[in-house]
Write a structure and sequence with these properties.
The structure is a homotetramer. Chain A is globular, with a radius of gyration of 21 Å. The first copy, chain A, is an alpha/beta fold and about 350 residues long. The two termini of chain A are about 30 Å apart. Chain A contains 14 helices and 13 strands. In chain A, helix 7 links the parallel strand 5 and strand 6. At the A-B interface, strand 1, helix 1, helix 3 and helix 10 of A face strand 1, helix 1, helix 3 and helix 10 of B.
Chain lengths: ~350, ~350, ~350, ~350
């Protein structure tokens, strides 16, 4: 039987979430997110981030959330700066350009932006013949598994403030970042240090749902018009409300992410024990080991994973992703297979 | 207790659909709609429309589906013709204009387009200083509860073909149309007479999902790029596949719509028995009775419904919507209340 | 020889304008409108409107100016209200929709908007499922030759202010309006009563150039970025500056428009003397007489004009346009021909 | 007196062009480019490129022409590949993104694309989660003064054909390329090897006008709708027709560009004689010498030029541009000043 480490959205929803959907199924709820579950979920999040004066919207996917956040914040001539590996720069089929904005991808080694990296983009955009940078987009954890330290986020946040740039954090995998062993940030820190950010549900045990939290007053007005216009306002919006109610009651959000990290940790240690290295360091739920092609050929008979990059003629970097649903037996099987195939001879 | 006739998306999903989601929950599925449930659902739909050579995509809402269908079909200078009451013309916060296309709303009495109505729009758009009409958008059932007869759809279809216009049918409430007592169309007819159309799941017992069927070869290429770009490609796409599997196994799609129509039929007869009239004739699940304001004031203490139009100083047209989940007891209570409040004195 | 009343842009530029272009031809000027001629032209306009605190931009055509003005003013979900005959609603190939905004055309009898007409559009756009009206677009003179009285513009202006709507005046033919015998407005009034407006050069003796005056502070920031992005920033921007220098030195702007009106007045009186009527009353440079088809057939052998509307089986409304370049001999010839063809027998 | 080498659009138009505008000034011409001058200019260009079956449009500026060409060619999810220095990538305020398309900038050393460079961009865009490259944009001469050899263009053209990519050549400075001493291409070659390209007038002696030649049949339909929609259809379109009539009668186009190159050649040799080097090799009308800051400080008292790049703490690369109007005396003065300031001590 094949076991998949392809991504963190291969299974449905955590059973407690499905159960809650079941229990509320025959309630009559107001449509379009104006229901009491969505309101309650927002209240739970406000409590968690210790901030009352924010707008919170439930949106059904990451690309949509990124698109709407950027659309609400930028005027037509303005652009968003991100790491060259940023999801909006690579993996959204040009969603941001499709709504009219240039994405300025800055080359960085580890998926993370720094004030210096942002500064370099600012320097290159100095006249009215060029787009005007107005927002910085980061992801935490990043697309290459790395994560921001508190000091790093504080530095970036204060640089953005000083330069008149909105700071937007894509939290599709925020759970994995916040529960990683290397993390020193809280949700309240994130809320305080960004102008808007979202908490990913889809990749952390929900069927679908991201919670966008908007703090900056200039980005908040009429946001629901934009949601509706983009076709992103679910008729049965309470489906998302219910899921976030569950995620933020009894720590489920953190527990699910912790499980994913724990499974990834086992994989990481096992792979390292076999003598293999990683393209990027990661203590979250995405790993990027470099493995010999002949090993990968064998592994791919029993496991699913994606190719990240060809390293040299004999080695390839793959991506392994764990999730709330990853089974210990799957991880064990992978490591056994790897061990059986022989350790690195380097 | 308040009972709602506000819309057909006030409750969750039919229990069989929830059950199926539950049973598949821990399967590992491919993401983004590349899974076997979505493929199977598409196969069931192909069987139902008796047509193999079509592309089928699952999309999470009506506005999104309309937007993507029109985006795929039109070049930048082209426009879509619809009834003035058309959903894309009124209730989508300018979604179609937001992707660059003018919506040409033609005034019609009953929510339905005819060749003559379309012709009038063509006549007014004759030079390169005007937008170029290229698509006709209709809905069945319409936004005012009416529906197309086979002869009407055939006439419109052949007119569109002759004029080089794509014909697109919004089937958000297609179930209600096809199961109405006045219907003489089948899904296979719809597929044959249009270039693309969608089958609504969200308003007929699904949590969320519309199935877009594209027959015209010019609209099919690269459609998944557009879905992804618009943020409409659900990571856990099989959620929609599973729902359409259930809807098109064992006639559930038709059974649910029939129930909605049956409940609406009871309401319609009861309201007519009280001597009240309707702004538009409807044998589907939306009714538009004209009621005295003093009666409405009382009714609104126990029932939810929306206001459609102010008719005169003393009368208002409201909208009552039934669904797969509407309870006989709710209908009875409404009619009892109406009767108690006294019949029309006209 | 054929004489054309097709429009007011059939000839080049007034000789004084060409002369000025000639004289400055070998100067080295800064590009993109940052030159001293453009600055001087703006100073002359500021003087004329008796207002210092405005931004003034030279743009090469009407559609472009409308597009940029609206793009700068509206957020993505917002819409502009105009008369159904408004240029942006009919004759710009969907330019406004192409940048994402719905144009709400309100049916009016005479090409002019009133507070009541605007109010009717506001009433129909009341929820977040609809576009949000945010701007009112008017033209003076209008597309059907009519013009605003001071009291009308004051009423509309104060209504817009009260409703939070920007008021934008398209002045492609503002010269004709301001020099008409029925006019009681000045350029200074226009500036005071609108949030932004433009003064048309192209239809009043310039080769190409419209001067957009923006008074409202929210529409002014970064406007030059939008001009550049739209490809509307001429490398040799001083060409437009020089033209407006000429137009606003020694009253040329008014003199040219007066000539056009005078020629139109002769035509109007001559046509009326023959017993023919007009579809809209006009004391500006566009006339809309209703003439018998057999008369038009003969006239079209010697004169060019455009068809406005088929009135009945035997009559057609045509459009006759005069300009700064219209020759008295052309007008005389037209009236002689009309007289020769016989007066109306009505 | 200050002399400017800032750009090639600092002066008006060549006197013969102005003269022609003068002579036709009182003709009555059809509007919007439907006049006989535009038709004649197109005929002259067809003759020059030895190709009949093309569409030719006159457009008033480079950014506009690029925008329209790309808009006509791409569907919403498609992207254009260009050199990182490409005008559309850097200097058009995001015009291409504003109409929805990602610009994929490929890092190259000399402003020119090769099949290998394009291939690298193709390799990185392989799935439907990424934009789909569909066009290659090049400029000749490039933004850094370099130019394509016939063999290079042939290789690129055949690679593009094989990969299903449109090849679009921005010829804002095509005159300078075709008349450079290193050139081995003709206009007919350019037409044959690209799918569409434009011949720049504005930077080669016209007031304003670029001539876009579209050969590929899929890009041609309805192009005038796009021009109008973008506000790029000049009412007095014959202004552009007349200018191209002059440019392509009696070799004026080539003569003007030759003069610019000749002036640049003198500057280049003089600068080299002083011992200074250039950042890019150029035999066209843009030079990029690297000069000591203390020299530049002095030069800037008498000459205008722009800064291209800071090379090190003591050296800066500037851009010097010559044109049809550059005076021998200006060039001499610059070289004298440079010599007086002392040769390089390297």
């Amino acid at each position: 039987m094949i076991y998949s480490f392809n991504n963190d959205y291969s299974e449905g929803a955590h059973p407690r979430i499905l159960q809650a959907l079941m229990e509320c199924n025959l309630e009559q709820n107001d449509g379009y997110g104006m229901d009491r579950h969505t309101a309650h979920a927002a209240a739970l999040i406000r409590q968690e981030i210790r901030m009352e004066d924010v707008d919170i919207h439930m949106i059904s996917g990451g690309t949509q959330t990124n698109t709407l956040a950027i659309r609400a914040a930028l005027r037509p001539h303005q652009a968003v700066i991100c790491a060259d590996t940023g999801h909006i720069n690579v993996h959204e089929t040009g969603a941001i350009e499709a709504i009219g904005h240039k994405v300025i991808g800055v080359r960085v080694p580890d998926g993370k932006l720094t004030p210096a990296a942002v500064q370099s983009a600012l320097r290159e955009h100095s006249t009215e013949h060029m787009v005007q940078p107005r927002m910085v987009y980061i992801s935490n954890s990043t697309e290459v598994g790395t994560q921001y330290q508190k000091a790093e986020l504080e530095a970036l946040s204060s640089f953005c403030k000083q330069q008149g740039l909105y700071l937007f954090l894509d939290g599709a995998r925020l759970g994995a970042a916040l529960t990683s062993r290397d993390n020193d940030l809280t949700l309240a820190d994130i809320a305080r240090l960004t102008d808007l950010f979202y908490i990913g549900g889809t990749k952390n045990g929900a069927l679908l749902a991201e919670a966008l939290i908007i703090r900056h007053p200039d980005i908040r007005p009429d946001f629901r018009f934009l949601i509706k216009q983009h076709g992103a306002m679910l008729a049965k919006g309470w489906i998302m409300g219910i899921q976030f109610e569950e995620l933020f009651q009894n720590h489920l959000f953190y527990d699910l992410a912790s499980h994913a990290n724990e499974m990834a940790g086992k994989l990481r240690r096992g792979i390292a024990d076999c003598g293999y290295s990683f393209l990027w360091p990661s203590s979250t739920n995405q790993l990027f080991p470099v493995l010999p092609n002949h090993v990968l050929e064998k592994l791919s008979q029993d496991f699913l994973f994606s190719t990240q990059m060809i390293v040299d003629e004999e080695h390839t970097c793959i991506r392994l992703v764990t999730s709330w649903a990853t089974k210990q037996t799957g991880v064990d099987a992978f490591l056994e297979a790897l061990t059986r195939l022989g350790a690195s001879r380097q």
